[in-house]
Design goal:
This protein folds into two domains: about 1-230, Rossmann fold (3-Layer(aba) Sandwich); about 245-340, Double Stranded RNA Binding Domain (2-Layer Sandwich), CATH 3.30.160. It contains ten helices and 18 strands. It has helices spanning about 1-15, 25-35, 65-70, 95-105, 120-130, 140-155, 190-195, 245-250, 270-280, 325-340; strands at about 45-50, 55-60, 80-85, 85-90, 110-115, 135-140, 160-165, 175-180, 195-205, 210-215, 220-230, 255-260, 285-290, 295-300, 305-310, 315-320, 350-355, 355-360.
Amino acid sequence: MYLDDRQRELAEAMETQGRWPADSPWVRRAILDTVPRHQFAPDRLWTWDGHDQYVPVDRDRDQDAWTDLVYAGPEDSAIIQILDGLPSSSLSCVAVVADMLDSLILEPGQRILEVGTGAGWNAGLLASRAGTGLVTSVEVDADLAAAAGRRLAAAGLDVAVHAGDGNAGWPTGAPYDGAIATYAVDQVPWAWIEQTRPGGRIVFPWGRLGHVALTVADDGKSATGWVQGLGMFMPSRGVDQGREYHAIRGDGPPDRTVRVERGLRALTDVNLLFALRVSHPDIRIATEDTKESLAVRLHDGVSSWAGAVIDQAGTTAAYEGGPRRLLAEVEAGRRHWEERGSPGVWDFGMTVTNDGQSVWSGAAGAGPYTP
């Protein structure tokens, strides 16, 4: 059967890439056997048409194409909802789901808060480990919440699914032994920490590049932890995602030609990219490497953009538009990263209090990383 073949291929790819968490063998069993992904995929999924829009892929019209989206590569998500032309909910990619569940350090019998139910798959994985009636999941979209509740019930998994604002948690079920978010936040809601017991873990995607695991302090007045891995997640509903590069760039000529003092190939280094995410969070960086050249595109989601092409000879042609000098800002962030010893992704951590949050590298006492 084609679905079984694709599921096996995904499992093998996870194995080959070393993506199954060794410290949490239950995650592999749950994903492959107890709570299979396809049981939580709606009959209509969405895919990019390669040109200018997302198009539906319906299970009853093309079972194999639908299956290909459900069981794509370890780092491929499956889009389950489109709002205003953009993805608004998905089945998260298997590799990141496995990594985040491992980071939660979930034990049987623990009470867990999940925010961002989506299709219900992650809630089902949590329930398969925690046990009956111990997972509370909150979803901002009432229709998604209702559909997820039906899928969980059909799978025999007892999860309390509520329609509501995930950033507010679900206080009537608190305190929880742990919490996990399936959507990205820039600022960690204090409610998540307030509703998690001292010593509890909180795992969430931070911004556009990685996920963090915090441990609530003994006095409950703060939570501190480290970056655990990389991955892209959708933001919480209602967050302005900003304008895309092509919309800011437009079709007209650039405002200026820019002389680049140092090579931009360093922007393919994930450690530098993460550091720039910390120091310059509003600058979005994309690279495309081919045999002929490396293309770099920057934008701020508002009105400024920069583009550069580095050919095989190392020659760089760079241009900008808009009020900001994005290439100069990125160069300043790169120098700051080098001055701080070029910390890697896993050297970064975060401390959250009721007054705000601080991102640091090396140790919590080192002070904020931002220059």
